[in-house]
Amino acid sequence: MNILHHSPTFHRTRARRDPFEARYGAPLPLGLRDEAAGMSWDMFDQIYSPRRGRYRLEHWRLHHLGSGKAVFEAAVRVDEVPHTSTAVASGPIAALTGMLYELGCNIEIVGLHQRKIGDRTATFLHAERDERRAWSMAINEDPVESSLLAIVAAANRL
């Protein structure tokens, strides 16, 4: 009978291969973990959470309408040109992806994962645009803002 034992060395080796786990003690989503294996934290952060790019979310506000609906307002810069958008949606993720679509960025979310890290939330987003897929990440104190920033990071990667 073969029994697989996990040794402390196995866990340390895996953490070194996964930059998020090495930094925060929690693993990346499986597909992203394989893609980011062996990267330093700085490299991982620069690639998956770009601070610069074509799209930038500058302002976000919501007004509850009741019945599960809300009006979302956002100020988004596209190539440094400011745009103000509004959307009626059931949630902020649908609202922002709809706003980006109107601005010429038709991304589709194919996977979303969130992890609590202390008092912050890390959001990992797998998105698709024009048959290309990319992962993105954002970390923020507010889980909703973390999701929105991950969407913008995905738009900039695609």
TrEMBL record:
<dbReference type="InterPro" id="IPR036230">
    <property type="entry name" value="LeuA_allosteric_dom_sf"/>
</dbReference>
<dbReference type="GO" id="GO:0009098">
    <property type="term" value="P:L-leucine biosynthetic process"/>
</dbReference>
<dbReference type="InterPro" id="IPR013709">
    <property type="entry name" value="2-isopropylmalate_synth_dimer"/>
</dbReference>
<dbReference type="Pfam" id="PF08502">
    <property type="entry name" value="LeuA_dimer"/>
</dbReference>
<dbReference type="GO" id="GO:0003852">
    <property type="term" value="F:2-isopropylmalate synthase activity"/>
</dbReference>
<keyword id="KW-0808">Transferase</keyword>
<feature type="domain" description="2-isopropylmalate synthase LeuA allosteric (dimerisation)">
    <location>
        <begin position="56"/>
        <end position="158"/>
    </location>
</feature>
<protein>
    <recommendedName>
        <fullName>2-isopropylmalate synthase LeuA allosteric (dimerisation) domain-containing protein</fullName>
    </recommendedName>
</protein>
